Amino acid sequence: MSDTRTLDIETDWGKPAFDELSSTASQLKENASGIVDRAKGKVQELGGKVHEWGDTAAAKINERRHTAAGALESTAGKMHHAADAGAQKISSAVHSAAEGVQSTATYLREHDTRQMLSDIEDVVRKRPGQSLLMAAAVGFLVGRAFRHD
């Protein structure tokens, strides 16, 4: 027959040892609670900063979209003017390109950042392959535009 005995800390080690162990456990619990509370605070603070950065970026985009639309409209007008002076085939192609630029300018002027992001998400969902190719082309063009050779 095996003699199984359970450990009774209060009886086996005495009341002072039990009280000290209990006090230590309470302190550990309080310290852990404090650490968790500080971590929650830091996460909330970081979340607020990220939200603020996103709002700032959206505001900057909104500020610049009217300027971009104006520049595109100006470019479209110059393209139409140049097309009128060119040969028939070239003229037709330039007019088509100018209409595309004008359409882009109108879109920028009439849609805010959130609407544009929503439209982009819809296009990417419907045509992921074409979206990747367009993103690569735009990235290449932007890289060339900002290159300092």
List keywords for this structure.
single chain; 149 residues; 0% strand; 5 helices; mainly alpha
Walkthrough of the structure:
The protein is mainly α. It is 88% helix and 0% strand. α2 (15-85) packs antiparallel against α3 (88-110) and α4 crosses α5. It is rod-shaped.
Summary?
The protein has 149 residues and is mostly helical. The protein has helices at 9-13, 15-85, 88-110, 113-126, 128-145. The model has no long low-confidence stretch (mean pLDDT 79).
Counting DSSP H or I runs of 4 or more residues, the number of helices is 5
How helical, in percent, are the residues? over 70%
User: Could you state the order of secondary-structure elements as H and E?
Assistant: HHHHH
Task: Give the C-alpha Rg.
Answer: 33 Å
In the predicted model, the low-confidence regions spanning at least 5 consecutive residues are none
Q: How many distinct beta strands?
A: 0
Q: Would you tell me the overall average pLDDT?
A: 79
Structural class determined from secondary elements = mainly alpha
Sheet with the most strands, sense and barrel status: none
Approximate strand percentage: under 5%
Mass-distribution shape = rod-shaped
N-end to C-end Cα span: 90 Å
